[in-house]
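Because discrete structure vocabularies remain unfamiliar, we reproduce here a specimen of the format, pairing a chain with its fold in token form:
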Amino acid sequence: MSNDTDLAYLRSVAEAGQQAPSLAGRFFVWWGGLAAPALLAHWFIITGLAGIEPDLVGFVWMAYGLIGMTGTALLGRSLRNKPGTGAVNNRGESAVWNGVMWLVAAYAIGAVVALVLGRGDMILFDTIPLVAFGGYGVSFWVSASLGGPRWMRPMSVIAWLACGGGMSLAGTPELYLFSAAAVAILAILPGVILLRGEPAGEAA
């Protein structure tokens, strides 16, 4: 997309007194569409319903991380021709969600290292999705504050409720069913809504 075309699009948006539509929908759907099945697979494995050793659950999350990061890189390229990528709200939204992604990754790696060093407990892994939900809440709040859809602000509250409410399920297999449902509400559903609102035009 040329700079002139993007500037023209942003000028038309500004003159209409609007923010550029969010371009984060595809990332919501991608990560949510990976996380929900991974959480369900985790539940199947630790309950014994999958018929495999519980230790193998780590491979589920390794695959999740590798596939997720690869797909994110490809999705980022798909935005190159989308109008509005240079808008302040989209740049801010991208920054805060990327920050949350690296926060969760750092926390998860820290939990693994602590366990390997014998200074942690398996329940640490149960807190990873809860930390993620807390990050979702911050990201929704920032996105709404930058002019994103109004429904993002109540979504931040739902995310924080999922973060706190899920603590009572830590240490139980039910946490992963709860988390899968929360991901559907906090990632997949918003992603579909945002995708429907994306500008259709692409620069030549």
Summary: The chain has a mean pLDDT of 86. Residues 112 and 125 are 8 Å apart (CA to CA). The helical segments are 3-15, 25-46, 57-78, 88-116, 123-126, 128-145, 152-165, 174-197. The chain has eight helices and no strands.
